[in-house]
Design brief:
The structure is a single chain. By secondary structure, the chain is of the alpha/beta class. The longest helix is centred in the N-terminal third of the chain and has 30 residues. It is elongated, with a radius of gyration of 27 Å. The relative contact order is 0.10.
Length: 442
């Protein structure tokens, strides 16, 4: 017999129709679609409408009046009134003595029912051969997997967690704790990306700069440095092919200018082979997607498939936010871009990975980056695009600095670190090395 059989569903409906404490605790997880009995689903739908208006449960007498009005207005259909009468009798005889059991079980039930419904929707979509319907069905499956996740989360006591915090800080003082951060490959930069000492897991990190300022070179540099340190990196390219990313990575690893890769092929091959033999080397996987076609939900499905095959990632690089496609078509482009930023940050939480992406400054920001520094207000299209970021670092470089092979990184908006810092680095963009060494603080 199923754990969530008809008896359990009647028990759940009893709490939903009569128990205010239950409704306030987990009532949002109860949906009519989760009930297999059509009449019971209708009774739950009626209660849902009542709760949305009044916020609390009502007496049986009031419930029957509400039901009659909704049926008359054709807002709810109850096909079997005799079954409805029987079920209401069962529901109102329940002693409601098992509230905590139902609360503890509801998240699992809701997720199971949501997945069952989503799977049925997927089967219907596959029968149509309609790619749009199939994509929506896949998204519904992913959404169903997250049902109840918040309710299953555990709260941590501030007082009982004190010793864990003390231990963490002691380890950090000794240099043996990174809070799971993914190294940038540059200790000076890691130390400023507190408290993680690198890119933070479950966080969105954005590198923002003018066109041709080295955003792709920066992500390649940080991806390779993370892989060298033993981390697993997935690089989603929305602009150029895997071959181009591979060639640019070869230039970075070998120190041979991108334009000279063919002429100095033997030198490049030797350097890359040596890099591949480094002890403790991690993973650097690259996958290209057509420009302005990749949605975050589709990227999540790609990564879920990788995960099912045993491959998890510590750092997910997306090159880059501004040329991805939002889940919804908006008349105002800004809303779609803001949605992408929010979804990328959520993706980091799903995979317990750091997310690193790029974004472009507007015309004013480009001018500021050449004279002084740009900041979050200079984001192309709208500030909302980058507002979700936990780390927003801008790329700044005057003509003279570019000629001298120097770049200034400005810590614009930092959720957990100090904002307003200016760090100067040497770089070699000819070899796709966004940073080569730390110069100092401006």
């Amino acid at each position: 017999m199923s754990q969530f059989d008809q008896a359990f569903q009647e028990q759940l409906a009893a709490h939903y129709l009569r128990d205010d404490v239950f409704v306030q605790s987990v009532g949002s997880l109860v949906l009519p679609d989760y009930f297999e009995n059509e009449t019971l689903a209708a009774l739950v739908a009626i209660q849902k409408i009542y709760l949305e208006r009044y916020g609390s449960c009502c007496t049986l007498k009031t419930y029957v009046q509400v039901m009659q009005r909704l049926i008359a207005a054709k807002k709810v259909k109850v096909a079997d009134m005799l079954e409805a009468k029987r079920l209401l009798g069962v529901i109102h005889k329940d002693p409601l003595s098992d509230r905590q059991f139902v609360i503890d079980t509801i998240a699992e039930f809701a997720r199971k029912q949501a997945l069952t419904n989503a799977t049925m929707g997927m089967a219907d979509a596959l029968d149509t051969d309609d790619e749009t319907k199939i994509a929506k069905a896949l998204a519904a499956v992913e959404e169903a997997k997250q049902v109840g996740a918040t309710d299953a989360a555990v709260a941590h006591s501030y007082t009982t967690q004190r010793q864990a915090r003390q231990q963490r800080r002691a380890q950090a003082a000794a240099g043996s704790f990174t809070n799971g951060g993914i190294t940038t490959g540059f200790p000076e930069l890691d130390n400023q990306l507190t408290p993680h000492r690198g890119w933070g897991r479950k966080e969105l990190n954005i590198l923002m700069g003018p066109p041709k300022s080295g955003k792709t070179a920066s992500m390649i540099t940080f991806a390779l440095k993370a892989a060298e340190a033993g981390f697993r990196v997935f690089y989603a390219s929305c602009e150029v092919s895997e071959d181009i990313i591979g060639d640019r990575s070869d230039a970075n690893v070998s120190g041979v200018p991108f334009k000279e890769l063919v002429k100095r092929q033997a030198e490049v091959d030797a350097a890359v082979e040596a890099w591949e033999k480094k002890p403790g080397l991690g993973v650097f996987d690259v996958q290209a997607f057509p420009i302005r076609t990749l949605k975050v939900s589709e990227l999540i499905r790609v990564l879920k498939k990788k995960q099912a095959n045993g491959q998890d990632y510590d750092l997910i690089c997306v090159d880059y936010l501004g040329i991805m496609k939002p889940e919804t078509v908006y008349t105002d482009k800004r809303f779609g871009l803001a949605e992408i930023g929010q979804d990328l940050r959520a993706m980091g939480t799903i995979f317990n990975a750091a997310v690193l992406t790029g974004y472009q400054t507007n015309r004013t920001g480009t001018q500021k980056a050449q004279r002084n520094v740009s900041d979050g207000t200079d984001a192309a299209d709208d500030y909302e695009v980058v507002r979700t970021a936990d780390v927003l670092v801008t790329i700044n470089q005057s003509v003279d600095e570019r000629a001298a092979g120097e770049v200034v990184l400005y810590f614009s908006e930092m959720r957990n670190a100090e904002s307003g810092l200016r760090m100067r680095f040497n770089q070699d963009l000819k070899c796709m090395r966004f940073l080569t060494s730390f110069v100092g603080y401006d």
